[in-house]
Amino acid sequence: MLKGNGSLSPRGIQAGKGSPSRILGIDPGLGSTGFGVIELAGNGSLLYQESGIIRPRGPSTPHRIQQIFQGLVQLIDKFQPQRMAVERPFFGKNVKSAMLLGQARGAAILAGAETGVEVYEYSPLEVKQAVVGYGRAAKEQIQAMVRSILRIPQELNAHAADALAVALCLAHSLPWQASLKKAEQAEALRSQRLNPAERLNPGDPT
Question: What architecture (CATH level 2) is domain 2-174?
């Protein structure tokens, strides 16, 4: 069962030129799986699209996993994101809870893979550092920062806020990823231009 907060186009945030990059953030859980959709416009502005929760029903774990998968596939079909960011479960002392979260995470990753969406994973520490700047930030701090960054006036469900935070974490990493890709392409091009002797003896001055 999908429950959303509705679409919102925040005042003062306008999409720039160029194709926006849409990101679907996921906070996996067998009881409640949060989702959040944002866009990174061509000028670097962040736009909030929608957020909510998927509440799988029934006592059977396989049926809950199936409902999470199907719900995410529906969201991907609706919003057509280019990337999906999934929060990686924290493996603490409660092994059983970690295993259940891992199953929900697997359903999310499979949904992305089946629909051809690039999937990225981030730890809770990485998400907190990217959004709040502090790895031990409380959930209330995360919610407040998410609402501030995306200019969301209404209250957010905790799972939806976490999902938006994961999406923001990916959005913040995209410029670095683009720079890394350019460096790799430049290095590949340089290697192609080397003659066979240089490739065999890169350190030989002769």
Answer: 2-Layer Sandwich (3.30)
